[in-house]
Amino acid sequence: MTPMHIPDGGGERLVFPDAIELTILIPGAATNGGFAVFEDVVAPDIGPGRHVHKLQDEVFFVLEGTFDIEIAGHLYRAGPGDVAFVPRGEIHAFKNVGIASGRLRYTFTPAGDTEAMFRAFYEAAQSGQLTPDTMSEIAEKHDQVFVGPPL
């Protein structure tokens, strides 16, 4: 592994208009697959459908805003400074419940190929093909399963 420094505003940005600005801060390849780090700027009333990561643990760090985070059927209200841990295999989702955009940083351990999944979502969105069915198909190729609606 090579040491890294990602300046504020750095990383690879994938913009999903009126929804999420996703930034890949540390890709899994940079850590030999040990972990990956991402950051989302999430529009109000936005969040993904309930889903499961089969092979990865996920940790959310709320940086700005107010989010509802559901993990294994438990709903938590989270604000700046809060941390939430999602063990692999648990159904979870989040939603920005504030009136302004919120910001989450999160890690996946091990990294898997999560950034490839996000890039595939982005490519589908750019071509106008990002539908719930397309997202499910892409996710399943990356050991993730959508299991229910958003919060």
Portion in helices: 10-25%
**Backbone CA Rg:** 14 Å
Which segments are poorly predicted (pLDDT under 50) over 5 or more consecutive residues? none
The spatial strand order of the largest sheet comes to 1-2-3-10-5-8
Could you explain how this protein is built, in words?
It is built from 2 helices and 11 strands, in the order ββββββββββααβ. The chain has a domain at 12-112: Jelly Rolls. A hairpin with a 2-residue loop joins strand 6 and strand 7. Helices cover 15% and strands 44% of the residues. It is mainly beta. The protein has a 6-stranded antiparallel β-sheet, with helices on one face. A 3-stranded antiparallel β-sheet has the order 7-6-9, with no helix packed on it. It has a two-stranded antiparallel sheet with strand order 4-11. The chain is globular and about 40 Å long. The mean pLDDT is 96.
What is this structure's SSE topology?
Blueprint: E1 12-16, E2 20-26, E3 36-42, E4 49-53, E5 57-64, E6 67-71, E7 74-78, E8 83-86, E9 92-96, E10 102-109, H1 114-126, H2 132-140, E11 144-150
Helix pairs in contact: 1-2
Which short descriptors sum up this protein?
single chain, 151 residues, mainly beta, Jelly Rolls, six-stranded antiparallel sheet, 2 helices, globular
Summary, kept brief:
With 151 residues, this protein is mainly beta. It contains two helices and eleven strands, in the order ββββββββββααβ. The strands form three sheets. A six-stranded antiparallel β-sheet has the order 1-2-3-10-5-8, with helices on one face. A three-stranded antiparallel β-sheet has the order 7-6-9, with no helix packed on it. Strands 4-11 form a two-stranded antiparallel sheet.
